[in-house]
Amino acid sequence: MDLQLLYLFNRTWTSPALDWIMAVVSCTELWVPFMVLGAGLGLIFGGFRARAFLLCAGLTLGTIDVLSTKTLKRTVGRPRPNDVRADVRMVDIGKASPRLLALGKPLKIKMARPSEKPVEGNSFPSAHTVNNVSFATIAAVFFRRRGWLVFFPALLVGYSRVYVGAHYPSDVLVSIPLAMGEALLLFVCWEMLWRRLGPRWFPETFAAHPSLIT
């Protein structure tokens, strides 16, 4: 079933337009400047909730990456489909530095060539999915109805990882609840730390904001 869905998303439900969209969505390096800019504007011009959100999101992503994602990748050791299968399309934006310049170049589309050497198991979980869904979960906690909208681009990123041949569908499907659970658990930790340390370290701010989401 997993392979059938992989072929469906990666080889059947495709088009030149989707190739371009999914390659762009899947390329983290392309979006880093915009994420840094958005975070900087939020820290400078945002209020307490915006700054608390950015701090919690950053701590959550860093903690999950160090304690969960990398550990699971090593433990599970599942190779990526484009590392072990020759019938998977690999879709990526062109080479350029900075990466934004690649938008004006043709896409790189080719069939995967399995490596003859042992490959690292980097397929499960999908770090792209875990990071984006974790971020969306924290956004939903802080901004409620508006925050839930962040799940749409987060899920699109997950789908794009299957489309470009970097992950199996099961990698993405399991990564979604995993990321949501970890993000919610970590938010509870950040809230407890704020309620414990806030009155001592930032008494005036804590008096106005006894909770991170107020």
What does this entry look like structurally?
The chain is built from nine helices and two strands, in the order αααααββαααα. With 214 residues, the chain is mainly alpha-helical. α2 packs across α7 (151-163) and α4 (48-76) runs antiparallel to α6 (127-148). The termini are far apart.
Which whole number gives the mean pLDDT? 94
Order of helices and strands: HHHHHEEHHHH
> Which structural class do the helices and strands define?
mainly alpha
How many distinct beta strands? Answer: 2
Largest sheet: 2 strands, antiparallel
C-alpha-based Rg, rounded: 19 Å
Strand content: under 5%
Low-confidence stretches: none
State the helical fraction: 55-70%
Morphology call = elongated
State the strand order across the main sheet.
1-2
Span from first to last CA?
45 Å
Summed up, the helix count is 9
Give a topology summary:
Blueprint: H1 2-12, H2 16-26, H3 28-45, H4 48-76, H5 81-84, E1 89-92, E2 108-111, H6 127-148, H7 151-163, H8 169-201, H9 203-208
Antiparallel strand pairs: 1-2
Helix pairs in contact: 2-7, 4-6, 4-8, 6-7, 6-8, 7-8
